[in-house]
TrEMBL record:
One of its GO terms (biological process) is proteolysis. This is Lysosomal Pro-X carboxypeptidase. Transmembrane segments: none annotated. GO terms for molecular function: dipeptidyl-peptidase activity; serine-type exopeptidase activity. It comes from Triparma laevis f. longispina. InterPro entries: AB_hydrolase_fold, Peptidase_S28, Ser_carbopepase_S28_SKS. Belongs to the peptidase S28 family.
Length: 501
Protein backbone atom coordinates (compact mmCIF):
# COMPACT_ATOMS: atom_id res chain seq x y z
CA UNK A 1 0.00 0.00 0.00
CA UNK A 2 1.49 3.27 -1.03
CA UNK A 3 -0.17 5.39 1.53
CA UNK A 4 1.20 3.44 4.46
CA UNK A 5 4.31 5.58 4.42
CA UNK A 6 2.49 8.85 4.55
CA UNK A 7 0.13 7.76 7.28
CA UNK A 8 2.90 6.33 9.37
CA UNK A 9 5.12 9.32 8.85
CA UNK A 10 2.43 11.38 10.50
CA UNK A 11 2.33 9.19 13.54
CA UNK A 12 5.29 10.60 15.34
CA UNK A 13 3.82 14.03 15.01
CA UNK A 14 0.31 13.02 15.98
CA UNK A 15 1.69 11.28 19.00
CA UNK A 16 2.05 14.68 20.53
CA UNK A 17 -0.31 16.90 18.67
CA UNK A 18 -3.35 14.86 18.05
CA UNK A 19 -5.29 16.13 15.03
CA UNK A 20 -8.36 17.68 16.49
CA UNK A 21 -11.39 15.60 15.65
CA UNK A 22 -13.68 18.57 15.60
CA UNK A 23 -15.76 17.01 12.87
CA UNK A 24 -17.04 14.35 15.20
CA UNK A 25 -20.47 15.11 16.54
CA UNK A 26 -21.38 15.62 20.16
CA UNK A 27 -17.99 16.39 21.55
CA UNK A 28 -19.48 19.28 23.44
CA UNK A 29 -21.60 16.88 25.47
CA UNK A 30 -19.11 15.90 28.09
CA UNK A 31 -20.30 13.07 30.20
CA UNK A 32 -17.14 12.43 32.17
CA UNK A 33 -16.73 12.97 35.85
CA UNK A 34 -13.10 13.94 35.30
CA UNK A 35 -12.62 17.61 34.46
CA UNK A 36 -11.62 17.63 30.81
CA UNK A 37 -9.69 20.86 30.90
CA UNK A 38 -7.46 20.90 33.91
CA UNK A 39 -5.76 24.26 34.22
CA UNK A 40 -2.51 24.22 32.30
CA UNK A 41 0.89 25.41 33.41
CA UNK A 42 0.90 28.19 30.83
CA UNK A 43 -0.65 30.44 33.48
CA UNK A 44 2.48 29.91 35.61
CA UNK A 45 4.75 31.28 32.89
CA UNK A 46 5.53 34.51 31.15
CA UNK A 47 5.34 34.41 27.37
CA UNK A 48 8.19 36.05 25.48
CA UNK A 49 9.35 36.43 21.92
CA UNK A 50 12.93 36.30 20.76
CA UNK A 51 14.20 37.69 17.48
CA UNK A 52 15.92 34.89 15.59
CA UNK A 53 17.72 34.70 12.27
CA UNK A 54 15.57 33.02 9.65
CA UNK A 55 18.77 31.39 8.37
CA UNK A 56 21.57 30.60 10.83
CA UNK A 57 23.90 29.13 8.23
CA UNK A 58 23.90 31.56 5.35
CA UNK A 59 23.20 35.25 4.93
CA UNK A 60 19.71 35.48 6.40
CA UNK A 61 16.82 37.04 4.50
CA UNK A 62 15.56 38.49 7.79
CA UNK A 63 14.46 37.58 11.29
CA UNK A 64 11.39 36.06 12.91
CA UNK A 65 9.85 36.08 16.39
CA UNK A 66 10.32 32.81 18.25
CA UNK A 67 7.98 32.24 21.19
CA UNK A 68 9.19 30.90 24.51
CA UNK A 69 7.83 30.62 28.04
CA UNK A 70 9.75 31.27 31.25
CA UNK A 71 9.05 30.63 34.91
CA UNK A 72 11.68 32.05 37.24
CA UNK A 73 9.72 31.60 40.47
CA UNK A 74 11.93 28.74 41.65
CA UNK A 75 15.17 29.97 40.18
CA UNK A 76 18.00 30.59 42.59
CA UNK A 77 21.34 31.93 41.30
CA UNK A 78 23.66 28.98 40.74
CA UNK A 79 20.71 26.79 39.82
CA UNK A 80 20.34 25.14 36.40
CA UNK A 81 18.20 26.02 33.43
CA UNK A 82 15.64 23.32 32.62
CA UNK A 83 15.17 23.86 28.90
CA UNK A 84 12.42 22.05 26.99
CA UNK A 85 13.30 21.70 23.29
CA UNK A 86 9.93 22.26 21.63
CA UNK A 87 8.81 19.85 18.99
CA UNK A 88 6.11 19.72 16.33
CA UNK A 89 3.22 21.48 18.03
CA UNK A 90 2.12 24.61 19.79
CA UNK A 91 4.60 24.72 22.69
CA UNK A 92 1.84 25.26 25.27
CA UNK A 93 1.06 21.56 24.89
CA UNK A 94 4.46 20.72 26.37
CA UNK A 95 4.32 23.52 28.94
CA UNK A 96 1.12 22.00 30.28
CA UNK A 97 2.16 18.36 30.12
CA UNK A 98 5.80 18.23 31.20
CA UNK A 99 5.33 17.67 34.91
CA UNK A 100 8.85 16.29 35.33
CA UNK A 101 10.22 19.81 34.87
CA UNK A 102 7.58 21.50 37.01
CA UNK A 103 7.79 19.07 39.90
CA UNK A 104 11.58 19.25 40.17
CA UNK A 105 12.25 22.93 39.54
CA UNK A 106 11.95 23.99 43.16
CA UNK A 107 14.31 21.39 44.54
CA UNK A 108 16.91 22.22 41.89
CA UNK A 109 16.38 25.99 42.04
CA UNK A 110 15.87 25.79 38.29
CA UNK A 111 14.96 28.40 35.73
CA UNK A 112 12.20 26.88 33.56
CA UNK A 113 12.21 27.57 29.82
CA UNK A 114 9.99 26.08 27.12
CA UNK A 115 10.96 27.12 23.60
CA UNK A 116 8.72 26.74 20.58
CA UNK A 117 9.98 25.02 17.44
CA UNK A 118 10.21 27.23 14.37
CA UNK A 119 7.22 26.98 11.99
CA UNK A 120 4.95 25.52 14.73
CA UNK A 121 2.53 27.26 17.07
CA UNK A 122 2.95 30.99 16.72
CA UNK A 123 6.68 30.86 15.93
CA UNK A 124 6.11 31.65 12.30
CA UNK A 125 8.84 32.68 9.92
CA UNK A 126 6.34 33.83 7.32
CA UNK A 127 3.15 34.47 9.31
CA UNK A 128 1.14 35.56 6.31
CA UNK A 129 1.96 32.29 4.52
CA UNK A 130 3.05 29.65 7.07
CA UNK A 131 3.78 26.97 4.51
CA UNK A 132 6.01 29.02 2.27
CA UNK A 133 9.81 28.82 2.23
CA UNK A 134 10.01 25.51 4.06
CA UNK A 135 13.71 25.29 3.29
CA UNK A 136 14.38 26.90 6.69
CA UNK A 137 12.56 24.07 8.45
CA UNK A 138 15.38 21.76 9.53
CA UNK A 139 16.61 20.21 12.75
CA UNK A 140 19.85 22.18 12.41
CA UNK A 141 18.05 25.53 12.20
CA UNK A 142 15.79 24.58 15.13
CA UNK A 143 18.77 23.58 17.29
CA UNK A 144 20.59 26.78 16.43
CA UNK A 145 17.52 28.78 17.50
CA UNK A 146 17.72 27.06 20.87
CA UNK A 147 21.49 27.61 21.17
CA UNK A 148 21.02 31.31 20.44
CA UNK A 149 18.15 31.69 22.88
CA UNK A 150 20.05 29.90 25.65
CA UNK A 151 23.06 32.12 25.14
CA UNK A 152 20.93 35.22 25.67
CA UNK A 153 19.08 33.77 28.65
CA UNK A 154 22.35 32.83 30.31
CA UNK A 155 23.41 36.41 30.17
CA UNK A 156 19.98 37.76 31.24
CA UNK A 157 20.05 35.55 34.32
CA UNK A 158 23.81 35.95 34.88
CA UNK A 159 24.64 32.27 34.58
CA UNK A 160 28.23 31.53 35.53
CA UNK A 161 30.46 29.23 33.51
CA UNK A 162 29.78 26.39 35.94
CA UNK A 163 25.98 26.67 35.94
CA UNK A 164 24.20 23.96 33.97
CA UNK A 165 21.63 23.81 31.20
CA UNK A 166 19.67 20.57 31.04
CA UNK A 167 17.67 19.74 27.92
CA UNK A 168 14.33 17.95 28.14
CA UNK A 169 12.26 16.61 25.27
CA UNK A 170 9.74 13.95 24.37
CA UNK A 171 9.30 12.10 21.09
CA UNK A 172 10.76 14.33 18.33
CA UNK A 173 11.64 16.75 21.14
CA UNK A 174 13.65 13.92 22.72
CA UNK A 175 15.47 13.40 19.45
CA UNK A 176 16.30 17.11 19.40
CA UNK A 177 17.47 16.95 23.03
CA UNK A 178 19.75 14.00 22.23
CA UNK A 179 21.25 15.67 19.17
CA UNK A 180 21.58 18.95 21.08
CA UNK A 181 23.75 17.29 23.72
CA UNK A 182 25.81 15.45 21.08
CA UNK A 183 26.40 18.47 18.87
CA UNK A 184 26.54 21.30 21.41
CA UNK A 185 27.92 19.83 24.65
CA UNK A 186 29.13 23.29 25.65
CA UNK A 187 25.52 24.49 25.64
CA UNK A 188 23.64 21.52 27.10
CA UNK A 189 25.24 19.75 30.05
CA UNK A 190 22.89 16.82 29.77
CA UNK A 191 19.61 15.69 28.26
CA UNK A 192 16.53 13.76 29.32
CA UNK A 193 15.08 12.27 26.14
CA UNK A 194 11.70 10.58 26.54
CA UNK A 195 10.60 8.10 23.86
CA UNK A 196 12.99 9.47 21.25
CA UNK A 197 13.30 7.14 18.22
CA UNK A 198 16.78 8.35 17.29
CA UNK A 199 17.95 5.08 15.72
CA UNK A 200 14.91 4.66 13.47
CA UNK A 201 16.81 5.65 10.32
CA UNK A 202 18.54 4.08 7.37
CA UNK A 203 22.29 3.45 7.58
CA UNK A 204 22.54 3.30 11.35
CA UNK A 205 24.91 0.52 12.39
CA UNK A 206 23.70 -1.79 13.73
CA UNK A 207 20.54 -1.08 11.85
CA UNK A 208 17.21 -0.97 13.54
CA UNK A 209 14.55 -3.50 12.58
CA UNK A 210 12.55 -1.61 9.93
CA UNK A 211 9.37 -3.25 11.18
CA UNK A 212 9.85 -1.98 14.71
CA UNK A 213 6.73 0.18 14.77
CA UNK A 214 4.41 -2.52 13.43
CA UNK A 215 5.90 -4.98 15.91
CA UNK A 216 5.45 -2.54 18.76
CA UNK A 217 1.78 -2.08 17.96
CA UNK A 218 1.33 -5.83 17.63
CA UNK A 219 2.90 -6.40 21.04
CA UNK A 220 0.23 -4.24 22.67
CA UNK A 221 -2.59 -6.54 21.56
CA UNK A 222 -0.94 -9.72 22.88
CA UNK A 223 -1.64 -11.41 26.18
CA UNK A 224 1.95 -10.53 27.19
CA UNK A 225 0.80 -6.90 27.22
CA UNK A 226 -2.34 -7.77 29.14
CA UNK A 227 -4.73 -7.92 26.17
CA UNK A 228 -7.47 -10.53 25.87
CA UNK A 229 -6.63 -13.92 24.43
CA UNK A 230 -8.04 -13.59 20.90
CA UNK A 231 -7.47 -9.89 20.34
CA UNK A 232 -4.38 -10.43 18.22
CA UNK A 233 -5.97 -13.19 16.11
CA UNK A 234 -9.06 -11.11 15.46
CA UNK A 235 -6.95 -8.12 14.43
CA UNK A 236 -4.65 -10.23 12.27
CA UNK A 237 -7.68 -11.12 10.24
CA UNK A 238 -8.24 -7.42 9.57
CA UNK A 239 -4.60 -6.48 9.03
CA UNK A 240 -2.55 -9.45 7.80
CA UNK A 241 -5.44 -10.97 5.84
CA UNK A 242 -6.90 -7.54 4.92
CA UNK A 243 -10.30 -9.16 5.30
CA UNK A 244 -12.15 -5.85 5.36
CA UNK A 245 -11.11 -5.23 1.76
CA UNK A 246 -12.85 -8.40 0.61
CA UNK A 247 -16.24 -7.71 2.18
CA UNK A 248 -19.30 -6.36 0.54
CA UNK A 249 -19.33 -2.54 1.02
CA UNK A 250 -22.92 -2.47 2.22
CA UNK A 251 -22.17 -5.11 4.86
CA UNK A 252 -19.26 -2.98 6.04
CA UNK A 253 -21.32 0.20 6.12
CA UNK A 254 -23.96 -1.27 8.32
CA UNK A 255 -21.78 -3.40 10.62
CA UNK A 256 -19.35 -0.54 11.25
CA UNK A 257 -22.30 1.86 11.71
CA UNK A 258 -21.02 4.30 9.13
CA UNK A 259 -22.82 7.63 8.92
CA UNK A 260 -25.23 8.05 6.04
CA UNK A 261 -23.25 11.03 4.82
CA UNK A 262 -19.91 9.22 4.88
CA UNK A 263 -18.77 9.72 1.33
CA UNK A 264 -16.10 7.02 1.10
CA UNK A 265 -16.52 5.29 -2.24
CA UNK A 266 -17.26 1.57 -2.45
CA UNK A 267 -13.85 1.06 -4.04
CA UNK A 268 -12.02 2.67 -1.14
CA UNK A 269 -14.13 1.53 1.73
CA UNK A 270 -12.27 -1.68 2.63
CA UNK A 271 -8.91 0.03 2.88
CA UNK A 272 -10.36 3.12 4.52
CA UNK A 273 -11.92 0.96 7.21
CA UNK A 274 -8.61 -0.86 7.68
CA UNK A 275 -6.74 2.41 8.14
CA UNK A 276 -9.48 3.76 10.39
CA UNK A 277 -9.04 0.74 12.65
CA UNK A 278 -5.26 0.95 12.49
CA UNK A 279 -5.28 4.62 13.41
CA UNK A 280 -7.37 3.96 16.51
CA UNK A 281 -5.00 1.18 17.52
CA UNK A 282 -1.92 3.31 16.91
CA UNK A 283 -3.11 6.17 19.10
CA UNK A 284 -4.28 3.85 21.84
CA UNK A 285 -0.92 2.06 21.77
CA UNK A 286 0.98 5.33 22.17
CA UNK A 287 -1.49 6.32 24.87
CA UNK A 288 -1.56 2.91 26.58
CA UNK A 289 -0.97 4.56 29.96
CA UNK A 290 -1.73 2.91 33.33
CA UNK A 291 -4.37 5.47 34.31
CA UNK A 292 -7.10 7.41 32.50
CA UNK A 293 -5.49 10.18 30.49
CA UNK A 294 -6.55 13.14 28.34
CA UNK A 295 -3.15 13.45 26.67
CA UNK A 296 -3.73 11.50 23.47
CA UNK A 297 -7.05 13.28 22.98
CA UNK A 298 -5.30 16.60 23.51
CA UNK A 299 -7.46 17.49 26.48
CA UNK A 300 -10.73 16.95 24.62
CA UNK A 301 -11.62 13.73 26.38
CA UNK A 302 -10.34 10.87 28.46
CA UNK A 303 -9.03 7.52 27.32
CA UNK A 304 -9.40 4.79 29.94
CA UNK A 305 -6.43 3.23 31.72
CA UNK A 306 -4.69 0.80 29.32
CA UNK A 307 -7.04 1.65 26.44
CA UNK A 308 -5.73 -1.18 24.25
CA UNK A 309 -6.68 -3.73 26.91
CA UNK A 310 -10.12 -2.13 27.21
CA UNK A 311 -10.59 -2.20 23.43
CA UNK A 312 -9.38 -5.79 23.25
CA UNK A 313 -12.18 -6.85 25.60
CA UNK A 314 -14.48 -6.48 22.58
CA UNK A 315 -12.37 -9.03 20.72
CA UNK A 316 -11.89 -11.52 23.51
CA UNK A 317 -13.50 -14.47 21.72
CA UNK A 318 -12.29 -16.13 18.57
CA UNK A 319 -14.36 -14.41 15.90
CA UNK A 320 -12.19 -15.34 12.95
CA UNK A 321 -14.43 -18.06 11.55
CA UNK A 322 -16.52 -17.18 8.52
CA UNK A 323 -19.79 -17.79 10.34
CA UNK A 324 -18.80 -15.14 12.92
CA UNK A 325 -18.25 -12.31 10.50
CA UNK A 326 -20.98 -10.06 11.88
CA UNK A 327 -19.80 -10.41 15.46
CA UNK A 328 -16.26 -9.84 14.29
CA UNK A 329 -17.20 -6.57 12.57
CA UNK A 330 -19.14 -5.37 15.59
CA UNK A 331 -16.16 -6.27 17.76
CA UNK A 332 -13.86 -4.22 15.52
CA UNK A 333 -16.26 -1.30 15.57
CA UNK A 334 -16.40 -1.36 19.36
CA UNK A 335 -12.62 -1.76 19.52
CA UNK A 336 -12.14 1.41 17.48
CA UNK A 337 -14.95 3.07 19.42
CA UNK A 338 -12.87 3.12 22.61
CA UNK A 339 -10.84 5.72 20.78
CA UNK A 340 -13.24 7.48 18.39
CA UNK A 341 -16.31 7.26 20.60
CA UNK A 342 -14.60 8.49 23.76
CA UNK A 343 -17.59 10.67 24.59
CA UNK A 344 -19.92 7.65 24.29
CA UNK A 345 -22.20 9.92 22.29
CA UNK A 346 -21.32 9.13 18.67
CA UNK A 347 -24.36 7.95 16.79
CA UNK A 348 -22.38 6.75 13.76
CA UNK A 349 -18.81 6.46 12.52
CA UNK A 350 -17.01 8.45 9.86
CA UNK A 351 -14.02 6.91 8.17
CA UNK A 352 -12.34 10.18 7.44
CA UNK A 353 -12.97 13.32 9.38
CA UNK A 354 -12.44 16.62 7.65
CA UNK A 355 -9.18 17.94 9.04
CA UNK A 356 -9.22 21.44 10.43
CA UNK A 357 -6.88 24.09 9.06
CA UNK A 358 -4.47 24.00 11.98
CA UNK A 359 -3.85 20.27 11.93
CA UNK A 360 -3.63 20.40 8.14
CA UNK A 361 -0.76 22.87 8.48
CA UNK A 362 0.98 20.74 11.08
CA UNK A 363 0.57 17.64 8.90
CA UNK A 364 2.10 19.45 5.95
CA UNK A 365 5.01 20.63 8.08
CA UNK A 366 5.66 17.18 9.49
CA UNK A 367 5.46 15.61 6.07
CA UNK A 368 8.06 18.08 4.87
CA UNK A 369 10.29 17.18 7.81
CA UNK A 370 9.79 13.49 7.11
CA UNK A 371 10.54 13.83 3.43
CA UNK A 372 13.54 16.11 3.91
CA UNK A 373 15.39 14.71 6.95
CA UNK A 374 13.35 12.62 9.38
CA UNK A 375 13.06 9.70 6.98
CA UNK A 376 12.17 6.97 9.45
CA UNK A 377 11.92 3.30 8.59
CA UNK A 378 8.41 1.87 8.40
CA UNK A 379 8.14 -1.67 7.16
CA UNK A 380 5.71 -4.40 8.06
CA UNK A 381 4.35 -7.81 7.35
CA UNK A 382 7.22 -9.65 5.72
CA UNK A 383 7.37 -12.13 8.59
CA UNK A 384 5.16 -13.30 11.45
CA UNK A 385 6.52 -10.84 13.97
CA UNK A 386 3.85 -8.26 13.28
CA UNK A 387 0.18 -8.60 12.40
CA UNK A 388 0.08 -6.44 9.26
CA UNK A 389 -0.11 -7.01 5.54
CA UNK A 390 3.07 -7.29 3.50
CA UNK A 391 4.71 -3.94 2.97
CA UNK A 392 8.41 -4.43 3.73
CA UNK A 393 10.49 -1.29 4.02
CA UNK A 394 11.56 -0.10 0.58
CA UNK A 395 13.66 3.03 0.96
CA UNK A 396 13.83 3.75 -2.77
CA UNK A 397 10.06 3.55 -3.17
CA UNK A 398 9.45 5.63 -0.05
CA UNK A 399 11.91 8.26 -1.21
CA UNK A 400 10.22 8.30 -4.59
CA UNK A 401 6.83 8.82 -2.98
CA UNK A 402 8.30 11.85 -1.20
CA UNK A 403 9.35 13.20 -4.57
CA UNK A 404 5.80 12.69 -5.80
CA UNK A 405 4.03 14.10 -2.76
CA UNK A 406 6.42 16.87 -1.72
CA UNK A 407 8.73 17.36 -4.65
CA UNK A 408 11.79 16.60 -2.52
CA UNK A 409 14.15 13.65 -2.26
CA UNK A 410 14.94 12.82 1.37
CA UNK A 411 18.46 13.17 2.69
CA UNK A 412 18.21 9.51 3.54
CA UNK A 413 21.26 9.08 5.74
CA UNK A 414 21.10 12.51 7.27
CA UNK A 415 21.22 11.57 10.94
CA UNK A 416 23.53 8.61 10.52
CA UNK A 417 25.98 10.91 8.73
CA UNK A 418 25.50 13.87 11.07
CA UNK A 419 25.61 12.13 14.41
CA UNK A 420 26.98 8.63 13.78
CA UNK A 421 25.63 5.53 15.39
CA UNK A 422 25.43 3.95 18.81
CA UNK A 423 29.07 2.86 18.88
CA UNK A 424 30.15 6.41 18.10
CA UNK A 425 27.91 7.80 20.83
CA UNK A 426 29.28 5.30 23.34
CA UNK A 427 32.77 6.65 22.66
CA UNK A 428 32.06 10.31 22.18
CA UNK A 429 28.79 11.33 23.78
CA UNK A 430 27.77 11.56 27.41
CA UNK A 431 25.09 12.72 29.84
CA UNK A 432 21.90 11.50 28.20
CA UNK A 433 19.09 9.42 29.67
CA UNK A 434 16.86 7.77 27.08
CA UNK A 435 13.57 6.40 28.29
CA UNK A 436 11.22 4.04 26.45
CA UNK A 437 7.78 2.75 27.36
CA UNK A 438 7.16 -0.99 27.12
CA UNK A 439 3.86 -0.38 25.29
CA UNK A 440 5.03 2.52 23.13
CA UNK A 441 5.31 1.40 19.49
CA UNK A 442 8.23 3.82 19.10
CA UNK A 443 10.29 1.91 21.68
CA UNK A 444 12.09 -0.21 19.06
CA UNK A 445 13.33 2.92 17.27
CA UNK A 446 15.08 4.24 20.34
CA UNK A 447 18.07 3.32 22.48
CA UNK A 448 17.07 0.50 24.82
CA UNK A 449 20.35 -0.38 26.51
CA UNK A 450 23.00 1.65 28.33
CA UNK A 451 25.74 2.68 25.93
CA UNK A 452 28.18 3.94 28.48
CA UNK A 453 28.06 4.88 32.14
CA UNK A 454 26.73 8.30 31.31
CA UNK A 455 24.49 7.24 28.42
CA UNK A 456 21.69 5.53 30.23
CA UNK A 457 18.64 3.78 28.84
CA UNK A 458 15.57 2.83 30.81
CA UNK A 459 12.68 0.76 29.48
CA UNK A 460 9.67 1.45 31.66
CA UNK A 461 7.32 -1.49 32.10
CA UNK A 462 3.61 -0.87 31.50
CA UNK A 463 4.36 2.66 30.23
CA UNK A 464 3.64 4.15 26.81
CA UNK A 465 4.79 7.29 24.99
CA UNK A 466 7.00 9.34 27.39
CA UNK A 467 4.82 8.78 30.44
CA UNK A 468 7.86 9.64 32.57
CA UNK A 469 7.76 13.28 31.43
CA UNK A 470 4.23 13.78 32.73
CA UNK A 471 3.04 14.98 36.12
CA UNK A 472 2.99 12.47 38.95
CA UNK A 473 -0.29 10.62 39.25
CA UNK A 474 -1.79 8.36 41.88
CA UNK A 475 -1.95 5.65 39.20
CA UNK A 476 1.81 5.75 38.58
CA UNK A 477 3.57 2.42 38.68
CA UNK A 478 6.71 1.86 40.75
CA UNK A 479 8.62 1.60 37.48
CA UNK A 480 7.73 5.03 36.19
CA UNK A 481 8.43 6.52 39.61
CA UNK A 482 11.84 4.83 39.59
CA UNK A 483 12.54 6.05 36.05
CA UNK A 484 11.84 9.65 37.02
CA UNK A 485 14.13 9.29 40.01
CA UNK A 486 16.87 7.83 37.84
CA UNK A 487 16.51 10.73 35.43
CA UNK A 488 16.68 13.41 38.11
CA UNK A 489 19.55 11.61 39.92
CA UNK A 490 21.50 11.85 36.69
CA UNK A 491 20.58 15.50 36.26
CA UNK A 492 21.86 16.14 39.79
CA UNK A 493 25.11 14.35 38.98
CA UNK A 494 25.67 16.31 35.75
CA UNK A 495 25.08 19.59 37.58
CA UNK A 496 27.55 18.62 40.32
CA UNK A 497 30.16 17.54 37.80
CA UNK A 498 29.86 20.85 35.99
CA UNK A 499 30.45 22.66 39.26
CA UNK A 500 33.46 20.44 39.81
CA UNK A 501 32.25 18.73 42.96
C1 LIG B 1 -2.36 24.97 28.32
O1 LIG B 1 -2.97 25.57 29.44
C2 LIG B 1 -3.55 26.84 29.21
C3 LIG B 1 -4.03 27.39 30.53
O2 LIG B 1 -2.93 27.73 31.31
C4 LIG B 1 -4.65 26.71 28.21
O3 LIG B 1 -5.20 27.98 27.93
C5 LIG B 1 -4.10 26.10 26.93
O4 LIG B 1 -5.16 25.87 26.03
C6 LIG B 1 -3.39 24.80 27.21
N1 LIG B 1 -2.75 24.38 26.00
C7 LIG B 1 -2.89 23.16 25.50
C8 LIG B 1 -2.29 22.90 24.18
O5 LIG B 1 -3.47 22.27 26.09
C1 LIG C 1 0.91 27.43 39.20
O1 LIG C 1 0.13 28.55 39.57
C2 LIG C 1 -0.92 28.25 40.46
C3 LIG C 1 -1.80 29.47 40.60
O2 LIG C 1 -0.99 30.61 40.85
C4 LIG C 1 -0.34 27.77 41.77
O3 LIG C 1 -1.38 27.41 42.66
C5 LIG C 1 0.50 26.53 41.49
O4 LIG C 1 1.15 26.11 42.66
C6 LIG C 1 1.55 26.82 40.43
N1 LIG C 1 2.20 25.55 40.10
C7 LIG C 1 3.48 25.45 39.85
C8 LIG C 1 4.01 24.08 39.61
O5 LIG C 1 4.21 26.40 39.82
C1 LIG D 1 -20.92 5.20 21.19
O1 LIG D 1 -21.07 4.76 22.51
C2 LIG D 1 -22.41 4.69 22.94
C3 LIG D 1 -22.44 4.31 24.43
O2 LIG D 1 -21.76 3.14 24.63
C4 LIG D 1 -23.19 3.69 22.08
O3 LIG D 1 -24.54 3.65 22.48
C5 LIG D 1 -23.06 4.11 20.63
O4 LIG D 1 -23.69 3.15 19.80
C6 LIG D 1 -21.62 4.26 20.23
N1 LIG D 1 -21.52 4.77 18.89
C7 LIG D 1 -20.94 4.10 17.90
C8 LIG D 1 -20.95 4.76 16.56
O5 LIG D 1 -20.46 3.00 18.04
C1 LIG E 1 31.54 7.39 28.06
O1 LIG E 1 31.78 8.51 27.21
C2 LIG E 1 32.47 9.57 27.85
C3 LIG E 1 32.47 10.77 26.97
O2 LIG E 1 33.33 10.61 25.92
C4 LIG E 1 33.87 9.09 28.18
O3 LIG E 1 34.55 10.12 28.83
C5 LIG E 1 33.75 7.88 29.06
O4 LIG E 1 35.04 7.33 29.25
C6 LIG E 1 32.85 6.81 28.47
N1 LIG E 1 32.62 5.80 29.47
C7 LIG E 1 32.72 4.50 29.21
C8 LIG E 1 32.44 3.58 30.35
O5 LIG E 1 33.00 4.08 28.12
Amino acid sequence: MRYTLLLLSLLLHVSLSHPIRSAFPSRTQKSHAVPLHTPGMVVNCTEYFFEQQIDHFAPSPGTYQQRYFVNSEYYTPGGPMFFYLGNEADVTLYVNATGLIWENAEEFGALIVFAEHRYYGVSQLFPEDPLSNLQYLSTEQALMDYVTLISTLKSTYSFSSTDSVIGFGGSYGGMLASWARMKYPHVWDGAIAGSAPIVSFEDMTPGVDPNFYAEGVTYDVTTAAGASEFCEANLRKAFADTALTTLDPSTLRSALQLCDDDDTSDDDIGWSATFWLNEALSYMAMGNFPYPSTYILNGDGVLPAFPVRVACEYLSEDLTRDDKIDEWLIGLSNFAGVYYNYTSTLTCNKLSSPVNRESEIVNTLWNYQYCSQIFQLFGQGDDESDMFWDAPWDGDASAQSCVESNGIYPDRSHFALSYGNKADWAREASNIVWSQGEYDPWRGGGVQEDLNDSLIAVVIGEAAHHLDLFFSHEGDTDEVIAARKLEMDNVRKWIREKRGN
